[in-house]
From TrEMBL:
It comes from Chilo suppressalis (Asiatic rice borer moth). Belongs to the sulfotransferase 1 family. SUPFAM superfamilies: P-loop containing nucleoside triphosphate hydrolases. Residues 65-334 form the Sulfotransferase domain. Pfam families: Sulfotransfer_1. Coiled coil: none annotated. It comes from the Eukaryota. This is Sulfotransferase domain-containing protein. Keywords: Transferase.
């Protein structure tokens, strides 16, 4: 497709027809809008082909010194962390948070990568409400560019695909989660969001995940890019499992990182606000807004279990061994370890 230009240093490759046919067998369900996938750069980051247009725009965008970014591999607790960060940075403005959905307060900059295909226009353009949502999703990059400061921006991109000045210019929070729980959560996500047209079972999904054929994989490359920078003064590296175990400490770490003094009372109220049972009911963050639209299938929910270690119920003996080998291989050159879960 594009072998690297002045505006974008990375090669973008389409799948060959054989791989396309193989992968798309699992993306053929009703309502799917994806047409093709691409691999980007030397690590071969995998995306729907809509990313090709966005990639140079995001890479070359201007960042502002007071931006706050939350970057994660998908399903690592992004939404939870976004709300935490936003509340601390905005002096606990619960009224504003209730009025403005998180996806507008804290836009997902590359959201349009799923939808700028003719098929999506046809699929979503069937009534005014769906069309308006598709337009809003497609304009997330523009929304970020014209937002008032301080901006709060979500991305699942690894640091190497984000603006090179990002970390030296503004604050970045990365949240990581055990990849086996990520895979389970992501599998449900692929079924919940109708636009993937995903029809595979968990074992098939797991295989795609470790073969780096799922959006934003390779998982370990993505996470390790941030891990390597965890001691940069503008990077705060968190784990989902730590937040689950001790949310007040995570809130205090975020507050210290953002230079905010917080009282025990404020921390305690925020933890109550962020508790899974409350979060699941919170219409500003729970994506229930998408129910009854063509974006999602109506079974399941974005806020699913909110636990650590649930992957054990999904892995058979073969997958357990695969996971162990895969993790050992990918962790051999790093001191990254995931918090143990009791
Ligand atoms: P599960 O599917 O395992 O339940 P992301 O926001 O990155 O997509 O991550 C979604 C995952 O975070 C889901 O995991 C979701 O339930 C979990 N999550 C969201 N809010 C949470 C909260 N308040 N407490 C714990 N987990 C939460």
């Amino acid at each position: 497709m594009n072998s690297g230009t002045k505006d974008y240093p990375y090669e973008i490759k389409n799948l060959d027809p054989e791989e396309h046919a193989k992968v798309f067998k699992q993306f053929n369900a009703d309502g799917g809008v994806l047409e093709d996938f691409i691999r980007v750069g030397p690590k071969g980051y995998w995306f729907p082909c809509g990313f090709a247009e966005l990639a140079p725009k995001i890479y070359n965008m201007e960042v502002r010194p007071d931006d706050v970014w939350v970057i994660t591999f998908p399903k690592s607790g992004t939404t939870w962390t976004q709300e935490l960060v936003w509340q601390v940075a905005n002096d606990f403005n619960y009224a504003k948070a209730k009025d403005i959905p998180l996806w507008n307060r804290f836009p997902f900059i590359e959201f349009a990568l799923f939808f700028n295909e003719e098929k999506a226009q046809k699929e979503f353009g069937c009534d005014e409400e769906n069309k308006a949502m598709l337009d809003a999703a497609n304009k997330k990059f523009d929304q970020v560019s014209t937002m008032q400061s301080p901006r709060f921006i979500k991305s699942h991109l690894p640091l190497s695909l984000l603006p090179p000045a990002l970390l030296d210019s503004c604050r970045v929070v990365h949240v990581a989660r055990d990849p086996r729980d990520v895979a389970v959560s992501y599998y449900h996500h692929y079924h919940f969001f109708r636009f993937y047209g995903y029809s595979g079972n968990f074992k098939q999904f797991w295989n795609l995940f470790i073969e780096n054929r799922i959006d934003w994989t390779p998982y370990f490359e993505n996470v390790k890019e941030s891990w390597r920078m965890r001691n940069h003064p503008n990077m705060l590296f968190l784990f989902y499992e730590d937040a689950l175990r001790d949310l007040p400490s995570t809130v205090k770490r975020v507050a210290a990182f953002l230079g905010k003094a917080v009282t025990e009372e404020q921390v305690s109220r925020l933890c109550e606000h962020l508790a899974f049972a409350n979060f699941k009911k919170n219409l500003s963050v729970n994506y229930d807004i998408l129910k009854d639209t063509r974006f999602v299938r109506n079974e399941g929910s974005f806020m699913r279990k909110g636990k650590a270690g649930g992957w054990r119920e999904y892995f058979d003996e073969e997958m357990l061994q695969q996971a162990q080998r895969w993790m050992e291989h990918n962790l051999r050159d790093t001191d990254l370890t995931f918090p143990s879960v009791v």
